[in-house]
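--- STAGE predict ---
source: upstream dedup step, 1 unique chain passed
mode: sequence only
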Amino acid sequence: MESVAITYQLTESFANHIIRIFYTVTVNHRYEKLSPSRKYALFNGEPFYIYTLSKQSENNTRQHPLKLLEFKSIYESLTAAAALRLEKALGTEFPLTIQHVRADPSVNYAIQFLTDLAEDSRYLYWEDNDDAGQWASLHKLANDSRKIYTQERHLFTITDTSIKDLLGIDRYIIRRVVTKYEVPVVLKGFQTIDSLLIHVPRLLNALMQELRRENLSFQKEDLKKLISYLYDQHLVNEKKAIQEQQQSAFIKTLSIDTGDVLLLTNGKLVVINKILFDYDNRLIIECAQLKKKLEKSQRTKAIPPSMISQVLKQAVFRDYTDQARVRNIDLLRRWMSKKTSSLTLPVFQPDFFLQ
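--- STAGE serialize ---
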């Protein structure tokens, strides 16, 4: 024999959750020269030991934390006894490798869960399958994120735990998204991952991609809620830029433009100077009142779209003033009532879920 390794693995067998403890022996070339009977005499026992976490008939994993803690004690005793026997037979210098009992994250999460449970049992529930299942992929992701973290540290401004606390979105959903779309993260904790520090712009892009996925069902509203929160609290400038771009595009679709003449519900005639939006994304028309001889007043005021009764396009108004023998506001008002129709403007609603 050249070396012996003792390891374990969490697995399933016929829908039973088990832990398989086994040893692996590495042999040298002399072993192949032995007769079959001699080989059998050297290795005639079972190379593994089965520890059952839960049987198929039990159909629940609530006892897993206690069973994993029990396994920890058995494994430590078993490997200690095996090590003593091997050292006695082969010497203390013989290469013996024993996998650490806490090498699998399930054991670590079980210990953490029971420790937390002892302190406060009100809100805890067992999440072994989620946390332990994501442990290896998250560590790989964090290792791949080191370079971007040194370059863009200032963009890592949110954690998965804060998202859960503030918005009620399960950590598993966030961790699944960052892993799937390779969003850079920094981990807190090694044996168990306590939290993720996440690259916010890349998280936003990942959420947008996930939102476009078919059959999203119940997670859709959670993702939208998180996207809105990121824009409001972490990506304010980006939100402003998107909003301004959408407002500019919206204005181009309107049936009114600067220079057009408006007949208001109070009977006044005004000329549009600017089309703006207030803080709540409501349309505001900045206009100047027409004087008696159809000159524009220097004073301006802002009106809501609800005050607009009719509109006269700028080109038509220019033709009217060029052809009119007398420029009089009352004559224009009567003329508009015959040549124009009522106007209703649409409501602007920004959409931050389009990318």
